[in-house]
């Protein structure tokens, strides 16, 4: 319950802040263009708070924090007195209307730069992308990518940490090959390997880009202990106890990794498995019969009712850590570069979504965003700033899509007006708005369905 409330609170703060930034962009430029703004609302539904300024603009915070809007004086919406027509949005030049509409997404991009700037000023400690091992028979193994080496570039793009690696790899979805440059830890020699990615199956909702290629990051030695047992399930019935350290299953040494244990159990429903464990400093083996549980897609997978906890038994080597911080001047360039890289990656992913290289199953909705907000906020300020920058960029890009119900659709109409010298007929605009609303509603429905299917 506490986790849910934390995620919800972080989501409301993040979304409220980003919506405010977006709508303020529209608001500020509208005022500069001499347009009368009647209402500035954050959220929809029942009004929780309101006030008026000296210009008569109503400021509102509403109950449902899933968006916002700026209502401007417009003859197409309401009757406007003759003396006020000069302040109406529809009577401004096409250039001014373009500026007002584009200001929202631009404000999101500027906010991302500010968020990155603060993140780089604050500084954070990340991990160098040092490969711990390569999964057998994986794409990385076929390319003979070496363990105990540091990734320094992906397709000639320099990378400093695992976050950079994942972003660079995600941008290569659908490409026939990816070049990864590494160097050994005890020398400066750089080796380049080409990975054949024609059969690369990457599902962002289930795993990271590096893991899907078979790249396992270095971690210090760790162990896994049983942290919880489901009463009456196979694990408890076989004699497992909370606190048991699980060493191996069916002869596969887990090396402190929980996921391989889960995979083996799920792949063996109604089969006997042998678990090697340590209890009170002594090793022993337990043979248990794996139970079954039906998944949402109808498949039966193994289930024993055991939850595990990973703990490190060795500290992270200082040589594997990377302190990231910049001065007040250098942080500006780094923030701009980081924002541009996110914009570029987002447009690439949208293009691959349209062409089918990325499945719509990878779309995420408010539940995933809330979980991401809660997780990043719980880690610290710097990760939360990165999360805000990421969502702000995506909010800006989504609003630039040429769907008539979004800012991008309005911009498309105004560009057509600029080129033809006359506005797009209202009947065509209305049809476009209906089509845009249908497409947007469909995408939102898919994203929300995906969220629930991942719970």
How would you sum up the global shape?
A: elongated
Largest sheet: 6 strands, antiparallel
Percent strand: 25-35%
Rounded to an integer in angstroms, the radius of gyration calculated over CA atoms is 27 Å
Residue-averaged pLDDT: 84
Helical residue percent?
Answer: 40-55%
Low-confidence stretches: none
* N-to-C series of helices and strands: HEEHEEHEEHEEHEEHEEHEEEEEEHHHHH
Distance between the termini: 15 Å
Structural class: alpha+beta
- Enumerate how many helices there are, as a single number: 12
The count of β-strands is 18
Structure, described:
With 455 residues, the chain is of the alpha+beta class. Helices cover 42% and strands 25% of the residues. It has twelve helices and 18 strands. Strand 7 (177-184) and strand 8 form a beta hairpin. The radius of gyration is 27 Å and the shape is elongated. The mean pLDDT is 84.
Based on the model shown, name its key terms:
455 residues, four-stranded antiparallel β-sheet, six-stranded antiparallel β-sheet, alpha+beta, 12 helices
Quick overview of this protein structure:
This protein is of the alpha+beta class.
Which SSEs are present, and which pair or pack?
Blueprint: H1 2-32, E1 37-52, E2 58-72, H2 94-122, E3 124-127, E4 131-134, H3 139-142, E5 149-154, E6 157-158, H4 162-170, E7 177-184, E8 190-196, H5 209-212, E9 215-217, E10 222-229, H6 234-237, E11 245-249, E12 252-253, H7 258-266, E13 272-279, E14 282-289, E15 291-294, E16 300-303, E17 306-312, E18 321-324, H8 330-355, H9 366-379, H10 381-400, H11 407-420, H12 426-454
Antiparallel strand pairs: 1-2, 3-18, 4-9, 5-6, 5-7, 7-8, 10-11, 10-17, 11-12, 11-13, 13-14, 15-16
